[in-house]
Specification:
Distance between the termini: 30 Å
Low-confidence stretches: none
Number of helices: 2
Number of strands: 4
Radius of gyration: 16 Å
Mean pLDDT: 90
Number of domains: 1
Strand order of the largest sheet: 1-2-3-4
């Protein structure tokens, strides 16, 4: 059993007027396996809708945690390779939604993404 202590702090920095950082962390248990999800998304400064884009990303991963992860475990798709593939698919889906938003709004927006997922005493980390 692990004990997780989580905290987050963010700053807009010296250049920008708006803090475009979004942070998500979730802790829980699925079928007696501890799980944790940590996501940091930082809207790309200089592009429009950076704060909204980073908030969208963390919101989507929050939904993934609540709705998809329990189904993944229930269906037995909780091997490391399965989860990595499903997280990469979620990132692709999020990216497609952001691209569609950009086209619809005739703008450019984007965000960085750092993700850490802990499950079954293993970790997956993804950066885009």
């Amino acid at each position: 059993m692990f004990i997780y202590t989580c905290g987050a702090i963010s700053d807009r920095g010296d250049v920008r007027k708006e803090n475009q950082d979004s942070i998500l962390f979730r802790l829980g248990e699925e079928k007696r396996q501890e799980a944790a999800l940590f996501v940091v998304a930082d809207g790309m400064g200089g592009l429009s809708y950076g704060a909204q884009t980073s908030q969208y990303i963390t919101g989507q991963f929050g939904q993934w945690w609540e709705t998809q992860l329990p189904l993944i475990v229930q269906d037995g798709m909780d091997r490391e390779e399965d989860i990595q593939e499903l997280l990469e698919q979620e990132i692709w889906d999020i990216n497609q939604a952001i691209l569609a938003f950009n086209q619809r709004m005739n703008c450019r927006s984007g965000s960085t993404l750092s993700l850490l997922f802990l499950y079954k005493n293993k970790y997956l980390k993804l950066r885009t």
